Amino acid sequence: MLSLSGPLRRPLEPKESHAVCLVDATGRRREVRRIAHTAEAVETCLANGMSLSEALDRAREAADEGRDKTVPMLARKGRASYLGERSVGHQDPGATSVALLVAAAAETLS
To answer: What sign results for the dihedral spanned by CA atoms 49, 55, 61, 66?
Structure first.
């Protein structure tokens, strides 16, 4: 069976050189978690008999939905938090980045 979370997690395993990156207050940690959750979801779909193409399409849909759900949210962390109420109505950049990564993976690997 194809395993996606292994290659994605290996660079994220807590090693001394990566520990700072994993607890960085700039928000990187959230994107790392989003990517890891996406890989786990794709693996679960594959384990349940879906084709890689179907699993990646579902991941793309979920990532897009998650990105879109950030639009009405008030930013509380990162640079967007400096905007206060003006951050409402804009996509979260991290969620947008993850959605683009998932879409690229789905297009390339399908």
So the answer is: positive
Confidence grade of residue 36 (pLDDT, cut at 50, 70, 90): confident
Helix 28-47 vs helix 52-69: angle between axes, to the nearest 10 degrees? 140
Question: Which one, of 6, 55, 51, 8, lies nearest residue 33 by Cα?
Answer: 8
pTM (2 d.p.): 0.67
User: What pLDDT is attached to residue 88?
Assistant: 93
Phi, psi of 50, rounded to the nearest 5 degrees: -75, 155
Distance CA 104, CA 106 (A): 5
Residue found by looking up tokens 């290996």 in the block? 10
